[in-house]
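Let us practice reading a record.
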Amino acid sequence: METRAGARCEYCLIHEADAYYGCEVDHVISEKHGGPTTAENLAYSCMYCNRLKGSDIASIAPRSGQLVRLFNPRTDRWNDHFVIDGAVIKPLSDIGEVTSALLGLNRPDRLEERALLQTAGRY
């Protein structure tokens, strides 16, 4: 899994060497919701993204008020749902928007970390 993900969190793209707690395995669809422990349902995730995602599989999109599924690294292309603009991960879709909000991708501490990593040429 680490090789498939390039040793990066499949949600925020931080490299495991730069993640304070490293990376861990995430069930894209949690076992609680019937997700199997198979390669097709596992993602490499930094501790922050994994903990904030928890067993969630969807959230309410602020603009539409609709229930929208979260980004799935096994079936979705990251660039279809997000773009990096400076240190900000900007959502491009409702899926990107709910995932970004739920995972706190643009919290001030994460923006600061990403900016520092960019300055060091590591992000």
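A brief commentary: Helices lie at 47-53, 78-81, 94-103, 108-119.
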